[in-house]
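Whiteboard transcription, Tuesday session. T.W. wrote the structure tokens on the left side:
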């Protein structure tokens, strides 16, 4: 039993439930989804890369001890905890990252003694780890774009007295230190918003608030109603690539981004 090790699932810590980890879990590597095709008479095999990763499973052996009269009650509490779905899973020896657990499965509860229960909980997770807090919106500090200014360098158009001439657009950069991410983009304002993410054009009809979820490939308005017909562009074109990402947009609109930084 490891006294200082915690598993936090759906916002509830194993320590709060008075259950303990027997051994630190093994952590699998994300596995590519690759199909193998064998052809009679041909040496070796053909492989089809589906361009995605399989879900991961993380199994953790746990136990608890308590009064004999409370043994079943504690087990029912654990089963309620394990019923949560699509929730964050945090292991406290890697607190910067979270797993997205689709669901959890419990083994049978082995009654080691009248007071002790022992079981294994297996979490079925997304193949990615996400940086904690990166699912929250960030409002960047944009820079003005001037006539003749190529974003990232270049010259300017100047007035007779040497002043730079500003356009109606602004830009900012986001540096991705991890794998390609699928952000949520919030646009606030009214009218047609023009934007460009890493050179890929986005056009959006905004009436208050518009949220573009590139992971789920859906756009909703501020009331959560489907508004996918309000944008023009491909969702995958708005991903944030490793390294520097340049986002250009009309200055009449406010842009916020939940970057969802992730790694494998």
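and on the right, the sequence the group agreed on:
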């Amino acid at each position: 039993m490891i006294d200082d090790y915690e598993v936090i699932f759906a916002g509830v810590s194993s320590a709060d439930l008075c259950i303990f980890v027997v051994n630190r879990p093994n952590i699998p590597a994300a596995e590519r989804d690759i199909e193998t095709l064998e052809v009679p008479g041909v040496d070796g095999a053909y492989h089809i890369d589906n361009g995605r990763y399989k879900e991961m499973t993380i199994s953790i052996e746990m136990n608890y001890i308590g009064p004999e009269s409370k043994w079943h009650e504690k087990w029912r509490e654990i089963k309620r905890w394990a019923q949560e779905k699509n929730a964050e899973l945090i292991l406290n020896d890697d607190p910067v990252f979270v797993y997205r657990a689709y669901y959890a499965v419990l083994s049978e509860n082995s009654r080691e003694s009248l007071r002790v229960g022992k079981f294994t909980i297996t979490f079925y997770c997304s193949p990615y780890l996400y940086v904690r807090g990166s699912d929250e919106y960030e409002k960047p500090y944009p820079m003005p774009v001037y006539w003749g200014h190529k974003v990232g360098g270049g010259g300017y158009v100047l007035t007779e007295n040497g002043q730079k001439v500003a356009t109606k657009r602004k830009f900012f950069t986001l540096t991705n230190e991890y794998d390609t991410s699928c952000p949520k983009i919030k646009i606030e304002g009214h009218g047609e918003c023009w934007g460009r993410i890493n050179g890929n054009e986005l056009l959006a009809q905004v009436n208050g608030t518009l949220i573009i979820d590139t992971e789920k490939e859906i756009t909703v308005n501020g009331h959560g109603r489907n508004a996918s017909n309000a944008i023009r562009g491909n969702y995958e074109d708005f991903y944030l690539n490793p390294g520097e990402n340049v986002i250009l947009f009309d200055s009449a609109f406010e842009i916020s981004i939940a970057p969802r930084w992730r790694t494998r």
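Someone added at the bottom: The chain is about 5% helix and 50% strand.
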